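Researcher: Here's my situation. A collaborator sent me these components and asked whether they could plausibly form a single complex. I don't have experimental data yet, so a predicted model of the whole assembly would be a useful starting point for our discussion.
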Amino acid sequence: MGNGPVQRPTLKDIAQKTGYSINTVSRALRNMPDIAVETRERIREVAREMGYHNNALASSLRLGRTNTIAVIIPDISNLFYAFALVEIERGAREQGYSTILLNTSESGAFEQNAIKTALQKNVDGIIFGPAQQSLDNTRMLMGSGTPFVQFARHFESVNADFCVGDDKLGGYQATAHLIEKGHRNILLLNGLAAHNSSARDRQAGYRAAHEAAGLPVQPDLVREVSILAGDVGQQLMGMLRQRPDITAVFAYSDLVALSAMAHLQQNGVRVPQDISIVGFDYIQSCINLPVPLTTVDIKIREMAAAALKCLLEKIAGPDSSKVVCQKFTRTELVPGATVQDIN
Amino acid sequence: MGNGPVQRPTLKDIAQKTGYSINTVSRALRNMPDIAVETRERIREVAREMGYHNNALASSLRLGRTNTIAVIIPDISNLFYAFALVEIERGAREQGYSTILLNTSESGAFEQNAIKTALQKNVDGIIFGPAQQSLDNTRMLMGSGTPFVQFARHFESVNADFCVGDDKLGGYQATAHLIEKGHRNILLLNGLAAHNSSARDRQAGYRAAHEAAGLPVQPDLVREVSILAGDVGQQLMGMLRQRPDITAVFAYSDLVALSAMAHLQQNGVRVPQDISIVGFDYIQSCINLPVPLTTVDIKIREMAAAALKCLLEKIAGPDSSKVVCQKFTRTELVPGATVQDIN
DNA sequence: CTCCAAATTATTAACCTTAATGTAACACTG
DNA sequence: CAGTGTTACATTAAGGTTAATAATTTGGAG
């Protein structure tokens, strides 16, 4: 017959079919009081028959809320964010919220667009995992009036909510573990500290662990690498040539650690016999690795759950500009098989 | 002053401020014709000053489209889907679409809710990565009138669009590679074939490769495991005890392969010296592994891009029930370091 | 000066839902 | 039996945008 695309039924259609007013139908379907029981049942029956389901657009427009949050993060294919996203999406769904995903690829410009999109779509709140160098965007977000929580990274200069890992503690734990196992020349393969609070804090922890052990911090043992740029192997092998006395590597993240291990493997350097490695993030909580990596559990699930909880509180609360939560999740060292005791 | 949450300005506000009608303001901001140049500029100027941005809810309600797609998939923390999601989100964004993410955790019930949510939110289309055992949901989706494309898995009994990997080819390539390297007793650690087209097809490829080589298929060498249930190690080590003549494993996915390798490692079995392993998916395209895994590249990016392209075509097209694309992306064997030549 | 066409702007209605307000019928109270 | 309260529904308005239609102004031709 070619009767074309079937339009979804509206309250009006049900009203016509049942002979009640639109308002009565609406109230019946929402189980509101002041409706005769048999009326309600009849209307609900017809709605079911017609395959009615509420039009969230119209509803949101009227109610002024969308039951939707946006998650703006730098890289979903990074297991850290992927796993966080799972938690956030699940928790949001359980509370009746949908999740709009906006990936920024660590780009400030993309991030700005992402924020604009989120605002246009009238999301009720935003989980904001800042890209590097996005202070301006964070400020813009503050001015928007839409509740948001900084996730994973944060800006000290902005007084806003955040849920981040205790990167300094984690950096300390990783480094102290290596020192305890007898390592003295520990290469830090860090992220880009200039624009990344996590990288700065992990480095601070690295320094603090040295100081606590009475060891000097050797500036040339701190290097910055970028997974996206793919320069991990180059920097690592270069350093090992320059400083053959290096016995251990503290990697900014498990991804960096894995990349480092792959390059060491290729060059015939054994882990942990020749070089010990500690990573960061504990992605093994979501992927099995052939060799368990010694790493720092940053408690992704906990961090994600805390961020979501904070955001929902802000959404429910009367004043979205009030800071509700500035949380550092406590990290924990997870021993694996990539650190050699050389005492 | 406590002047409360600042309301976002609307067309009405701009109209009042400039003295023009709402319609004129709307047309000015959308760069429509039939407006005096100076009027347009003046209005746009004021809009900028007031920080106006379009209310997508109202716009969508009026226009009947949301510029939003939903991605309904079983598990975002599975790198396969995570990487696909990156591609889909990026492509969608480039075409002006936002992405709502709905994770189903392989649950048919969650999936049903996800579909309902997507329909309520009036998404323009759905990338649908079916959970296992979700044939009914797929049928429901067909009846909804909303364009969708099955992704990664599909149902033969439903005549609808899909973009999936050529699982049979991939299964063949993996198995043939092992046979070529001299392996005769190849354990297939498959997914749950009863509810998963990929698992069935990969197994068909496994069988075909045996037949092509004139080898018998040994039914006891085909086992089904579940990453979520965590029974990979148990099944694998059990089989190796029963059949010490097994020299190779073809794993359903890289995740299964990694899990298998971890258990082999723990039990002192060396890869590839004692046991060869081939995986599936090529997650190394997004994560470095210390030892390169021999695997089958299922072309995630290509598959994701194809699915999105197909969906956008359906959205743009006049008849969303018309099947536009039923595509199998061609797989490719990627040699790594986990297969031993025992010829 | 009149009339027509073109250019510009305004008015109205519609998308679908929800909340506030309005109305009618009926039972009960004193 | 007038007045009050309750029950069950209907009507109206509003949320912000856009498209169709209507109205006004301007310029030019005759």
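Model: Some features of this prediction you could bring to your collaborator: Residues 10-12, 22-23, 26-27, 30, 54-55, 57-63 of chain B lie near DNA strand D (CB under 10 Å from a C1'). The two ends of chain B are 83 Å apart (CA to CA).
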